[in-house]
Structure prediction request, 429 residues.
Amino acid sequence: MISVQEALQTVLNTAQDFGVEEISFIKSVGRILKEDIKADRDFPPFNRVSMDGIAIDFKEFSSRLRSNRHLQFKIEGIQAAGSEQITLQNSENCIEVMTGAVLPNNCDTVIRYEDVEIKNGIATIIINAINDGQNIHIKGKDGKVGDVLIKQNTMISAAEIGVLATVGKSTVKVAKQPKVMIVSTGDELVGVDETPLAHQIRRSNVFTLVSLLERLHISSEIANLTDDKTILKEKIKAFLSTYDVLLFSGAVSKGKFDFLPEVFEELGVEKLFHKVAQRPGKPFWFGRAASLSIEQNAVDGNGLKQTDKRTENKYQKKTIVFGFPGNPISTFVNCLAYFYPWYYKSVGVDQQEENAILSEDVSFKPNLTCFLQVKLSYRFGHLIATPIKGNGSGDLVSLVNADAFIQLPADQIEFKKGEVFPIVNYRSF
Prediction:
């Protein structure tokens, strides 16, 4: 049995690069960017009006203010957003301007409509506190042509989508997602829409895992296998040759029908560890399949497949196997604590550790790392973790009442109110 720290490092050491694909920018939210996004022009690309109002020559305004002359400006025209730049012909006049419009030539200051009165084509400025260059978004202030606006390995959000659109990136390079199969095992499991018999339960873990992967924008397929070793071996052998990652829920402990460790060994899956000093999820099994040689073909100008001589037509593929214990809480926390970090490392994203303050004293005597369910809240700007009482690792409903797991180290028994520990957060907070 190894420690949580050893288990996590072992998992991270198997991280894989699944390559890059180019997709529509509008479909890229949540994906990991695999190119630097550069400005194709200055941003903004012109001196941009940032308030509806009038544009003037500030020197003319200052001159009139000093000499106590009237602050009335004849309106020469209107500069609308999206229209070609016009020119102020007489510095004693002004031009009406709209937000987003290019600043007219010979103008350098914009006064909002709220600070002027317009009557009979004359704009009268009704305040004296005007600043030179106000209400103008200067060309290139946000970025110059060629500047990196979004760095590679950024997780794309709605904010990045707007930038991609404004630089004309209709398609974008992102990390390919691993091909994942999620497998539940057990003769006691029936479908969600079925009525279970007294000795049966509905499948739930597999759908929990599907949802946890969807948070990472990873599509997955699912299968439910019976507790028959021959069938398990046949099906898993096919999965190993097809998928990048296999996630199992159940059949990895010491029960008479927990055949997965034997099946993995017989299929040549390398066991990297089995059992972690943690609660819940102690029987966690992790390994990788032997390398498979996969043909890699190019396509010539006639659409025919051609061997890529540089790689000798092959690359090495190792299917990663996560064997999570079947209790719902165990499956849930192990996916978050191990699969998530593995995925983020594989696609080049640095995870930031999140911590919280324990709200009350807690005791945990076993020499194991404890993933304790907690409710999160903010108090005076600090994240507070309040323990939630559940009924063990089979208490699926308790997940609904919590927000995260706080990770309590194995070398302590008493954990005091006010101490800070890492958390595994499964809700946006």
